[in-house]
Write a structure and sequence with these properties.
Chain A is mostly beta strands. Helix content of chain A is 4%, strand content 37%. Chain A has a 4-stranded antiparallel beta sheet, with no helix packed on it. Chain B folds into 5 domains: 178 residues, FAD/NAD(P)-binding domain (3-Layer(bba) Sandwich), CATH 3.50.50.60; 114 residues, FAD/NAD(P)-binding domain (3-Layer(bba) Sandwich), CATH 3.50.50.60; 57 residues, no CATH class; 82 residues, Sulfite Reductase Hemoprotein,Domain 2 (Sulfite Reductase Hemoprotein, domain 2, Alpha-Beta Complex); 153 residues, Sulfite Reductase Hemoprotein, domain 1 (2-Layer Sandwich), CATH 3.30.413. Chains A and B meet through β1, β2 and β5 of A and α18 and β38 of B.
Chain lengths: 112, 828
């Protein structure tokens, strides 16, 4: 296993404009998103507002609308958009040979 | 309102100003004088119509049914009284004696003046063809004409509008909205040729034809046919067009007869100097009846400038009128058009053109010697005021030239289109409201003085109070002055589109659009894939329009509808199985109790809709708990959806000593019929067995109250933030009728309400009478609505829980993988 990157599965398991979840034992659950254009992003699955599960939001362009109170969070920067303020950690992602790889250090950042 | 006379106090020795004409020019002139020196003149106004002064430009919305007469009154009776003005309405002046300095009214009243102001406006031009005087042939000039048109439209039938200029097209639009079959005859090859160039005129013609009007250009009227009443119009090429009403809107001419007969110098209009003084120093004139410097104006904007110059002169601080450059910005049948200046082209003129056929946009700016001399905009008129400002100030646009056609925000902001910056950049004297002649500076001052809402601005400086074209600009000024928290009504569906909900629904059907990306392409969405407001709405509109073919877009569903359960603040879900009419059984209760134990429900709660709600279920466990509940015979309760929620009942005649009918049985039948139907918003039903109303049916979207003789049907109730009791729709005799009316009402709501409108605001918006006309009065229509509801249910009434329990959309409930320290475990 690559020390820097964790393989979490094939990219075709992510629906376009959809998201899946990735629990981290002892750490914060991660949400993996796929946009309409096919780009893949990962954020800690907690809205900076009231910790809503961002993975369940509606994805449009490169943002996701939190399902609890409709805050819009950038998938690229993790920052709240519009008039709201707050930021959620971004986990670097890359696609290699049709597999989703996420950065180990950031993915385990919250884990003990 | 039939009005004759408002009279001021008798013993008034001030100089007497007599105004002939109680219209927009006459009254505006008096207003301008009063703001400068309220005590200077004793004022008498003569008006030909038996009414106070109203906004003549707004006759079109009255005809179209968007406004009532009271909405377009500019000066109320109180205004005349408070300012001590004598108003003689309905008794026009028929003669002026300049030597004696008197005017004589048709009723024989002789009034002396010190200063006389003629503001007689213009008369419609009636083409001299046989039959022009037949009953049913009218012009479109005043409230009486509108009333005649409304009466004709009530009878239905066909109308012919002669004249494809602004006035004619507005008449045609209004009559068409009122249900008449409308044909527009226009002599010239393209519509509105004085305001629009050929390309824009052609686009307009296409759009109007798409809205059901017949447009004949190059049509030369030979005669109006009919014996005792108009029956049709005959063209010079022999074509005959049947008509129950003919509206002549070929043009207007300055109304100069009075002035001419009195020996005042008249050309095309009454000749005035820069201070609006005629050839007689004590006789003045303003408005459409005058000719200034060889120009006659038929638009409202120049009138404001003339009235200012006149008032300055009459209060001894002369300024002088220098003529007006006019622009036209208007909406014809909901289509934005704008034009200004000279766009006929010619020597040294250069055209800059932008076309976006798909978006229905055409822009043309005419430049000469690095200055804008004309502009025509079709479909997108947002930059009209900017072009007009550059044109009026004759600014050098050489530096802007490359970006000019893309609009102000782009040309000045380097590409980042920020409409606020564009408005902020307008100069203080830039005109915001053309109807009422209000500049940006005046709007901003009015906001600074405390007008903090659109309504308040409309109420004070009158900007945006007339045609509403500048509403967006005024809202932006409010936002710029006060920050973003200004309240305003939603106009477009969301920021992704310039269309309203109603527009989008209409186009989905008209263009047979079937999937969301297709809607976004066809209707020029400004974002690549919409937003969390428009996507769920589009998904619903498509589902409603094409129930048989619709493929649901899970990514356009709010979380609860995607997960078929209600998300809670900790990210777990609550699960509500359906209990028909609120009735359950020991077996069902045992299965619910077992499920609550098995899946660790942390709370079981009885809901307001007579159901049991299991809280704290994890998304991974949802398919399994649904499978267990299915096995006990229960289906999804849709407690999470914009859909039929619950039918609440009381026990009714089966048990209750007061019960008049089997309310429980009817409730169960109603729920069996309606469950699983998606709607614009959640929908609640209740059936009470007697007027004691234990099921609280009068705060539901649809409520039935049983009485001895049948069933009272109630609609539009809401027990939420804004408590609203239902309106009584009607009473029916049988249970089957109650079910039929319920289905028809739901389908009407499904087809016509905007997404996220509950029935309460929808009923208030469209009115109870409208609902009655569709559900109660129109038996055939009711049957058709019911049939469409049944058709939709045939395709869409299914238990989503069963599908998910069987494995559908499995990935929505499963993690993609798990990370344990130093290991990754795939889910498959």
């Amino acid at each position: 296993m690559d020390a820097e990157w964790l393989d979490i599965g094939p990219v075709d398991q992510l629906p376009a404009m959809g998201a899946r979840t990735l629990p981290v034992h002892g750490g914060d659950e991660i949400a993996i998103f796929r946009t309409a254009t096919g780009s893949v992003h990962a954020l800690v699955n907690k809205c900076p507002h009231k910790q809503g599960p961002l993975s369940q939001g509606i994805i449009h362009d490169t943002s996701v609308a939190c399902p609890l109170h409709n805050w819009r969070i950038s998938l690229v920067t993790g920052k709240a958009l519009g008039g709201d303020e707050g930021c959620v950690p971004v986990i670097p992602v890359k696609i290699d040979g049709g597999r989703i790889l996420i950065s180990r250090a950031e993915a385990l950042a919250g884990a003990a | 309102m039939e009005l004759q006379r408002i009279k001021r106090a008798e013993d008034d020795t001030r100089e007497h100003l007599v105004v002939i004409g109680n219209g927009m020019a006459g009254c505006r002139a008096v207003e301008e004088i009063l703001t400068r020196d309220p005590a200077r003149y004793r004022v008498t106004i003569f008006g030909a119509e038996p009414r106070v002064n109203y906004n003549r430009i707004m006759l079109s919305p009255v005809l179209a049914g968007e406004k009532a007469f009271d909405d377009i009154v500019i000066n109320t009776p109180e205004w005349y009284v408070e300012n001590g003005i004598d108003l003689i309405a309905g008794d026009p002046v028929i003669g002026i004696d300049r030597a004696a300095k008197t005017v004589t009214s048709r009723g024989g009243e002789v009034t002396t003046y010190d200063k006389l102001l003629i503001a007689t406006g213009s008369d419609p031009f009636i083409i001299p063809v046989p039959g022009k005087d037949l009953p049913g042939v009218i012009s479109f000039r005043d409230m009486d004409d509108v009333n005649t048109m409304l009466a004709a439209a009530d009878k239905g039938g066909s109308a012919v509008v002669i004249g494809g200029g602004l006035l004619g097209l507005e008449a045609a639009h209004g009559l068409s909205l009122r249900g008449m079959k409308v044909t527009v005859l226009h002599l010239m090859p393209t519509l509105m040729e004085r305001q629009l160039d050929e390309a824009a005129g052609w686009l307009l013609k296409q759009a109007l034809e798409a809205r059901g009007q017949t447009i004949l250009t190059g049509a030369d009227t030979a005669a109006i046919m009919g014996e005792t009443h108009v029956e049709g119009v005959k063209l010079k090429d022999g074509t005959e067009i049947p008509a129950d009403l003919v509206v002549m809107a070929v043009g207007i001419r300055p109304s100069t007869t009075l002035a001419r007969d009195a020996g005042v110098e008249v050309g095309r209009g009454i000749k005035v100097d820069d201070h609006m003084v005629t050839s007689d120093p004590d006789v003045l004139a303003v408005g459409e009846c005058v000719e200034h410097d060889g120009n006659v104006y038929g638009l409202v904007a120049p009138l404001w400038d003339m009235c200012r110059a006149l008032a300055d002169h009459l209060t001894e601080s002369p300024s002088g009128y220098r003529g007006s450059v006019t622009s036209t910005k208007l909406k014809v049948s909901g289509i934005d058009v704008f034009s200004a200046g000279d766009f006929s082209g010619g020597e040294g003129c250069e055209d800059i053109v932008l076309r976006d056929a798909a978006r229905g946009v055409y822009k043309r700016v005419v430049v000469k010697d690095d200055k804008i001399i004309g502009a025509v905009l079709y479909g997108d008129t947002a930059d009209g005021s900017w072009y007009f400002d550059l044109l009026k100030k004759q600014e050098d646009v050489a530096d802007l030239r490359d970006f000019l056609i893309f609009g102000q925000a782009f040309a000045q902001g380097g590409g980042a289109a920020d409409p606020k910056a564009a408005v902020a950049a307008l100069s203080d004297d830039a005109e915001i409201c053309g109807c009422n002649g209000v500049s940006k500076g005046q709007v901003v001052a009015c906001i600074a003085k405390g007008a903090h809402s659109l309504d308040a601005v409309r109420g004070t400086c009158k900007a945006s109070a007339s045609c509403g074209q500048c509403t967006g600009l005024v809202e932006t000024l409010l936002a710029l002055s006060l920050g973003d928290d200004v309240q305003s009504g939603p106009k477009t569906m969301c920021k992704c589109t310039s269309f309203t909900h109603d527009d989008v629904r209409r186009e989905i059907v008209a263009q047979e659009l079937k999937v969301i990306p297709q809607v976004m392409q066809a209707l020029n969405w400004s974002t690549p894939d919409g937003c969390s407001s428009c996507r769920p709405a589009l998904n619903y509109y498509l589902l409603c329009a094409w129930p048989a073919e619709h493929v649901d877009d899970q990514q356009s569903r709010f979380v609860n509808e995607r997960m078929h359960a209600n998300i809670q603040k900790d990210g777990t879900y609550s699960v509500v199985p359906r209990m028909w009419g609120g009735v359950t059984t020991p077996d069902e209760l045992r299965a619910i109790a077992d499920a609550a134990d098995k899946y660790g429900a942390r709370m079981v709660k009885v809901t307001g809709g007579q159901r049991l709600d299991l809280f704290g279920i994890k998304k991974e466990d949802l398919p399994a708990i649904w499978g267990d509940l299915n096995a006990a015979g229960m289906v999804s309760g849709h407690a999470y959806g914009k859909s039929l929620r619950t039918v609440k009942t009381c026990v009714g005649s089966e048990w209750c000593r007061f019960g008049t009918q089997d309310s429980t049985g009817l409730g169960i039948k109603t729920e069996r019929m309606t469950w699983g139907s998606w709607m614009p918003h959640k929908f609640k039903i209740a059936v009470s067995g007697c007027p004691r109303n234990c099921a609280e049916a009068t705060i539901k979207d649809f409520g039935v109250i049983c009485v001895d003789s049948g069933y009272e049907l109630h609609i539009g109730g809401n027990g939420g933030i804004h408590l609203r009791g239902t309106d009584l729709l009607c009473k029916v005799a049988t249970e089957q009728e109650a079910l039929d009316y319920c289905a028809a009402f739901i389908q009407l709501y499904r087809e016509e309400a905007r997404y996220l409108d509950r029935t309460a605001p929808w009923v208030e918006r469209v009115g109870l009478d409208y609902i009655k006309s569709r559900i109660v009065d129109d038996a055939e229509g009711r049957e058709a609505l019911k049939a469409r509801f049944e058709e939709s249910q045939r395709h869409l009434q299914k238990d989503p829980w069963a599908e998910r329990a069987a494995g559908a959309e499995r990935e929505l409930h499963q993690h993609i993988a798990e990370i344990r320290p130093f290991a990754v475990v795939g889910a498959e």
